[in-house]
Amino acid sequence: MKIVKIKSGLGNQMFQYAFAKTLESLTGESVMLDLSQYNIDRLHNGFELSRLFDIDLKEAPKETVELLSTIPNTFIKRIQRKFFTKPTHYIEDETIFNENVFEIQSSCYFEGYWQSEKYFAPIKNKIADIFSFKYPINHSTEQCVSEIDEYTASIHIRRGDYLLGMNKNLNLCTINYYSTAVNLLQSYHTIKKIIVFSDDIPWCKKCLSFKNIELVFADWNNTEDSWQDMYIMSKCKHNIIANSSFSWWGAYLNQNWNKMVIAPEQWNKKQKRNFRIIPTDWTSLPV
Protein backbone atom coordinates (compact mmCIF):
# COMPACT_ATOMS: atom_id res chain seq x y z
CA MET A 1 0.00 0.00 0.00
CA LYS A 2 1.05 3.56 -0.73
CA ILE A 3 -0.24 6.56 1.24
CA VAL A 4 0.17 10.18 0.10
CA LYS A 5 -0.18 12.99 2.60
CA ILE A 6 -2.51 15.80 1.50
CA LYS A 7 -1.91 19.21 3.03
CA SER A 8 -2.20 22.96 2.46
CA GLY A 9 -4.54 24.77 0.04
CA LEU A 10 -6.22 23.75 -3.20
CA GLY A 11 -3.26 24.19 -5.56
CA ASN A 12 -0.98 22.07 -3.40
CA GLN A 13 -3.70 19.45 -2.94
CA MET A 14 -3.87 19.15 -6.72
CA PHE A 15 -0.12 18.57 -7.02
CA GLN A 16 -0.26 15.93 -4.30
CA TYR A 17 -3.26 14.18 -5.80
CA ALA A 18 -1.70 14.18 -9.28
CA PHE A 19 1.38 12.56 -7.76
CA ALA A 20 -0.80 9.97 -6.00
CA LYS A 21 -2.61 9.08 -9.23
CA THR A 22 0.76 8.69 -10.97
CA LEU A 23 1.91 6.36 -8.19
CA GLU A 24 -1.23 4.32 -8.71
CA SER A 25 -0.72 4.20 -12.48
CA LEU A 26 2.97 3.27 -12.43
CA THR A 27 3.00 0.80 -9.53
CA GLY A 28 -0.41 -0.83 -9.93
CA GLU A 29 -0.71 -0.75 -6.14
CA SER A 30 -3.44 0.58 -3.90
CA VAL A 31 -2.88 4.28 -3.16
CA MET A 32 -4.74 6.11 -0.40
CA LEU A 33 -4.75 9.62 1.02
CA ASP A 34 -3.86 10.88 4.48
CA LEU A 35 -6.19 13.78 5.25
CA SER A 36 -5.40 14.02 8.96
CA GLN A 37 -3.69 17.40 8.55
CA TYR A 38 -7.14 18.97 8.16
CA ASN A 39 -8.15 17.77 11.61
CA ILE A 40 -5.40 20.01 12.97
CA ASP A 41 -5.20 22.92 10.56
CA ARG A 42 -8.01 23.97 8.21
CA LEU A 43 -5.73 26.13 6.05
CA HIS A 44 -7.53 28.28 3.48
CA ASN A 45 -10.73 26.31 2.76
CA GLY A 46 -9.58 22.98 4.13
CA PHE A 47 -9.66 19.82 2.05
CA GLU A 48 -11.38 20.70 -1.23
CA LEU A 49 -10.55 17.96 -3.73
CA SER A 50 -13.57 15.74 -3.08
CA ARG A 51 -15.92 18.72 -3.10
CA LEU A 52 -14.69 20.11 -6.41
CA PHE A 53 -13.59 17.07 -8.43
CA ASP A 54 -14.66 13.47 -8.96
CA ILE A 55 -11.67 11.94 -7.17
CA ASP A 56 -11.52 8.20 -6.63
CA LEU A 57 -8.69 7.66 -4.14
CA LYS A 58 -9.96 6.92 -0.64
CA GLU A 59 -8.82 8.15 2.77
CA ALA A 60 -6.32 5.86 4.50
CA PRO A 61 -7.26 4.30 7.85
CA LYS A 62 -5.73 6.08 10.83
CA GLU A 63 -3.98 2.93 12.05
CA THR A 64 -2.25 2.41 8.68
CA VAL A 65 -1.08 6.03 8.60
CA GLU A 66 0.36 5.64 12.09
CA LEU A 67 2.01 2.34 11.14
CA LEU A 68 3.87 3.74 8.12
CA SER A 69 4.57 7.33 9.13
CA THR A 70 6.17 9.39 11.85
CA ILE A 71 3.52 12.03 12.55
CA PRO A 72 5.00 15.01 14.46
CA ASN A 73 2.03 15.48 16.78
CA THR A 74 4.11 15.46 19.98
CA PHE A 75 7.51 16.89 20.90
CA ILE A 76 9.10 13.43 20.94
CA LYS A 77 7.63 12.54 17.55
CA ARG A 78 8.86 15.85 16.09
CA ILE A 79 12.37 14.86 17.15
CA GLN A 80 11.85 11.36 15.76
CA ARG A 81 10.58 12.70 12.43
CA LYS A 82 13.58 15.01 12.05
CA PHE A 83 16.32 12.55 13.02
CA PHE A 84 14.82 9.05 13.11
CA THR A 85 12.08 8.96 10.49
CA LYS A 86 10.67 5.49 9.85
CA PRO A 87 12.09 3.81 6.73
CA THR A 88 8.52 3.56 5.45
CA HIS A 89 8.11 7.36 5.63
CA TYR A 90 9.50 9.09 2.52
CA ILE A 91 9.95 12.86 2.79
CA GLU A 92 10.41 14.69 -0.50
CA ASP A 93 13.54 16.75 -1.22
CA GLU A 94 11.79 19.82 -2.60
CA THR A 95 14.90 21.11 -4.40
CA ILE A 96 15.04 18.30 -6.97
CA PHE A 97 12.90 16.00 -9.07
CA ASN A 98 13.50 12.40 -8.00
CA GLU A 99 12.20 9.92 -10.58
CA ASN A 100 13.28 7.02 -8.37
CA VAL A 101 10.41 7.73 -6.01
CA PHE A 102 8.17 5.68 -8.29
CA GLU A 103 10.41 2.65 -7.90
CA ILE A 104 9.82 2.18 -4.17
CA GLN A 105 8.40 -1.33 -3.96
CA SER A 106 7.35 -1.72 -0.34
CA SER A 107 4.49 -0.10 1.53
CA CYS A 108 5.32 3.56 1.99
CA TYR A 109 3.99 6.88 3.26
CA PHE A 110 4.85 9.83 0.99
CA GLU A 111 5.08 13.38 2.32
CA GLY A 112 5.81 16.37 0.11
CA TYR A 113 4.39 18.99 -2.20
CA TRP A 114 5.48 17.36 -5.52
CA GLN A 115 5.40 20.72 -7.29
CA SER A 116 6.62 19.64 -10.69
CA GLU A 117 4.86 18.62 -13.87
CA LYS A 118 7.36 15.75 -14.04
CA TYR A 119 5.70 14.04 -11.07
CA PHE A 120 2.55 13.49 -13.12
CA ALA A 121 4.01 13.41 -16.65
CA PRO A 122 3.03 9.73 -17.16
CA ILE A 123 -0.65 10.64 -16.76
CA LYS A 124 -0.45 14.16 -18.19
CA ASN A 125 -3.13 13.45 -20.79
CA LYS A 126 -5.60 12.63 -17.99
CA ILE A 127 -5.01 15.71 -15.83
CA ALA A 128 -7.64 17.92 -17.48
CA ASP A 129 -10.28 15.24 -16.84
CA ILE A 130 -9.12 14.57 -13.28
CA PHE A 131 -9.31 18.28 -12.46
CA SER A 132 -12.55 19.09 -14.25
CA PHE A 133 -14.68 21.12 -11.84
CA LYS A 134 -17.99 19.42 -11.13
CA TYR A 135 -19.79 22.38 -9.54
CA PRO A 136 -21.70 24.90 -11.66
CA ILE A 137 -20.21 28.39 -11.78
CA ASN A 138 -22.09 31.39 -10.43
CA HIS A 139 -23.66 34.12 -12.56
CA SER A 140 -20.79 36.62 -12.15
CA THR A 141 -18.21 34.02 -13.19
CA GLU A 142 -20.35 32.92 -16.12
CA GLN A 143 -20.66 36.51 -17.35
CA CYS A 144 -16.92 37.13 -16.91
CA VAL A 145 -16.01 34.00 -18.89
CA SER A 146 -18.48 34.86 -21.67
CA GLU A 147 -16.63 38.16 -22.19
CA ILE A 148 -13.17 36.58 -22.53
CA ASP A 149 -11.77 36.88 -26.06
CA GLU A 150 -8.43 36.33 -27.76
CA TYR A 151 -7.13 39.60 -26.30
CA THR A 152 -7.73 38.66 -22.65
CA ALA A 153 -5.07 37.66 -20.12
CA SER A 154 -5.08 37.02 -16.38
CA ILE A 155 -2.84 38.30 -13.61
CA HIS A 156 -2.63 36.79 -10.14
CA ILE A 157 -1.28 38.86 -7.28
CA ARG A 158 -0.74 37.05 -3.99
CA ARG A 159 -0.29 39.26 -0.93
CA GLY A 160 -2.43 38.46 2.15
CA ASP A 161 -0.76 35.53 3.93
CA TYR A 162 2.54 36.19 2.09
CA LEU A 163 2.93 39.29 4.25
CA LEU A 164 2.74 37.29 7.48
CA GLY A 165 5.83 36.37 9.50
CA MET A 166 5.11 32.66 9.12
CA ASN A 167 5.71 33.06 5.36
CA LYS A 168 8.79 35.29 5.59
CA ASN A 169 10.72 32.98 3.23
CA LEU A 170 8.24 33.50 0.39
CA ASN A 171 8.94 36.16 -2.21
CA LEU A 172 6.38 38.85 -2.88
CA CYS A 173 6.15 39.57 -6.59
CA THR A 174 6.87 43.24 -7.26
CA ILE A 175 5.10 45.79 -9.44
CA ASN A 176 8.19 45.67 -11.65
CA TYR A 177 7.67 41.92 -12.18
CA TYR A 178 4.08 42.45 -13.31
CA SER A 179 4.92 45.47 -15.50
CA THR A 180 7.76 43.59 -17.18
CA ALA A 181 5.50 40.56 -17.65
CA VAL A 182 2.75 42.63 -19.28
CA ASN A 183 5.24 44.36 -21.58
CA LEU A 184 6.73 41.01 -22.57
CA LEU A 185 3.31 39.51 -23.19
CA GLN A 186 2.34 42.49 -25.33
CA SER A 187 5.48 42.07 -27.45
CA TYR A 188 4.07 38.71 -28.61
CA HIS A 189 0.31 39.13 -28.36
CA THR A 190 -2.23 41.94 -28.50
CA ILE A 191 -3.70 42.38 -25.02
CA LYS A 192 -6.74 44.59 -24.50
CA LYS A 193 -8.07 43.27 -21.19
CA ILE A 194 -6.53 41.76 -18.08
CA ILE A 195 -8.57 40.05 -15.38
CA VAL A 196 -6.93 40.64 -12.01
CA PHE A 197 -7.14 38.02 -9.26
CA SER A 198 -5.86 38.75 -5.78
CA ASP A 199 -6.41 38.36 -2.07
CA ASP A 200 -5.85 42.14 -1.87
CA ILE A 201 -8.07 43.70 -4.53
CA PRO A 202 -8.02 47.20 -2.91
CA TRP A 203 -4.21 47.25 -3.25
CA CYS A 204 -4.48 46.14 -6.88
CA LYS A 205 -7.00 48.86 -7.70
CA LYS A 206 -4.69 51.43 -6.18
CA CYS A 207 -1.38 50.23 -7.66
CA LEU A 208 -2.09 48.55 -11.00
CA SER A 209 -2.33 50.44 -14.28
CA PHE A 210 -1.28 49.37 -17.78
CA LYS A 211 -1.53 51.67 -20.79
CA ASN A 212 -4.43 50.93 -23.14
CA ILE A 213 -5.48 47.83 -21.19
CA GLU A 214 -8.82 47.44 -19.45
CA LEU A 215 -8.53 45.95 -15.97
CA VAL A 216 -11.30 43.76 -14.57
CA PHE A 217 -10.96 43.04 -10.86
CA ALA A 218 -12.38 39.62 -10.00
CA ASP A 219 -13.67 40.33 -6.50
CA TRP A 220 -16.82 38.19 -6.31
CA ASN A 221 -15.46 34.72 -5.53
CA ASN A 222 -14.61 34.27 -1.87
CA THR A 223 -14.11 31.40 0.59
CA GLU A 224 -15.85 28.30 -0.81
CA ASP A 225 -16.31 29.94 -4.23
CA SER A 226 -12.63 30.89 -4.60
CA TRP A 227 -12.02 27.89 -6.89
CA GLN A 228 -13.93 29.77 -9.56
CA ASP A 229 -11.00 32.18 -9.84
CA MET A 230 -8.85 29.24 -10.97
CA TYR A 231 -11.57 28.29 -13.44
CA ILE A 232 -11.64 31.81 -14.94
CA MET A 233 -7.82 31.88 -15.16
CA SER A 234 -7.95 28.65 -17.14
CA LYS A 235 -10.32 30.26 -19.65
CA CYS A 236 -8.11 33.32 -20.30
CA LYS A 237 -5.89 33.20 -23.38
CA HIS A 238 -2.67 33.99 -21.48
CA ASN A 239 -1.61 33.98 -17.83
CA ILE A 240 0.76 35.95 -15.63
CA ILE A 241 0.99 34.05 -12.38
CA ALA A 242 2.34 34.66 -8.90
CA ASN A 243 4.57 32.27 -6.96
CA SER A 244 1.42 30.39 -6.09
CA SER A 245 0.32 26.83 -6.79
CA PHE A 246 -3.23 28.17 -7.18
CA SER A 247 -2.46 30.32 -10.23
CA TRP A 248 0.03 27.70 -11.46
CA TRP A 249 -2.92 25.33 -11.90
CA GLY A 250 -5.07 28.08 -13.38
CA ALA A 251 -2.43 28.53 -16.08
CA TYR A 252 -1.70 24.81 -16.48
CA LEU A 253 -5.36 23.97 -17.08
CA ASN A 254 -5.55 26.66 -19.75
CA GLN A 255 -6.20 24.74 -22.98
CA ASN A 256 -5.39 27.62 -25.36
CA TRP A 257 -2.98 26.11 -27.93
CA ASN A 258 -0.78 29.22 -28.18
CA LYS A 259 -1.02 30.46 -24.61
CA MET A 260 1.86 32.38 -23.07
CA VAL A 261 2.43 31.83 -19.36
CA ILE A 262 4.80 34.05 -17.41
CA ALA A 263 5.93 32.96 -13.96
CA PRO A 264 8.36 34.29 -11.33
CA GLU A 265 11.81 32.71 -11.27
CA GLN A 266 12.28 32.82 -7.50
CA TRP A 267 9.41 31.31 -5.56
CA ASN A 268 11.09 31.74 -2.20
CA LYS A 269 14.07 33.61 -0.83
CA LYS A 270 16.18 30.46 -0.42
CA GLN A 271 16.18 29.72 -4.15
CA LYS A 272 17.89 31.63 -6.93
CA ARG A 273 15.56 30.07 -9.49
CA ASN A 274 12.89 27.40 -9.27
CA PHE A 275 13.07 25.64 -12.59
CA ARG A 276 11.53 22.49 -11.12
CA ILE A 277 8.07 24.00 -10.86
CA ILE A 278 8.12 25.98 -14.12
CA PRO A 279 7.27 23.92 -17.24
CA THR A 280 9.75 24.23 -20.08
CA ASP A 281 7.30 26.01 -22.37
CA TRP A 282 6.60 28.79 -19.85
CA THR A 283 8.57 32.02 -19.48
CA SER A 284 10.13 33.05 -16.17
CA LEU A 285 11.12 36.50 -14.95
CA PRO A 286 12.83 37.84 -11.80
CA VAL A 287 10.37 38.87 -9.10
How would you describe what is shown here?
By secondary structure, the protein is of the alpha/beta class. It has two domains: 2-130; 139-285, 3-Layer(aba) Sandwich (Rossmann fold). The protein has eleven helices and ten strands. It has helices at 10-27, 37-40, 49-52, 62-68, 75-83, 127-130, 139-146, 175-188, 201-207, 227-235, 245-252; strands at residues 2-5, 31-34, 89-91, 108-111, 152-157, 193-198, 214-217, 238-240, 261-264, 283-285. The chain has a six-stranded parallel sheet, sandwiched between helices. It has a four-stranded parallel sheet with strand order 2-1-4-3, with helices on both faces. The protein is globular and about 60 Å long.
Structural class: alpha/beta
* Intertermini distance: 41 Å
Radius of gyration: 20 Å
Which CATH first-tier class of the largest domain would you pick? Alpha Beta
What's the rounded overall pLDDT mean? 91
Strand content: 5-15%
Biggest sheet overview: 6 strands, parallel
Count the beta strands.
10
Low-confidence stretches: none
CATH architectural label of the largest domain:
3-Layer(aba) Sandwich
Q: Largest beta sheet: what is the strand line-up?
A: 7-6-5-8-9-10
Number of helices: 11
CATH topology tier name of the largest domain: Rossmann fold
How many domain units?
A: 2
Query: What is the string of helix and strand elements?
Result: EHEHHHHEEHHEHEHEHEHEE
User: What global shape is seen?
Assistant: globular
Helix content: 25-40%
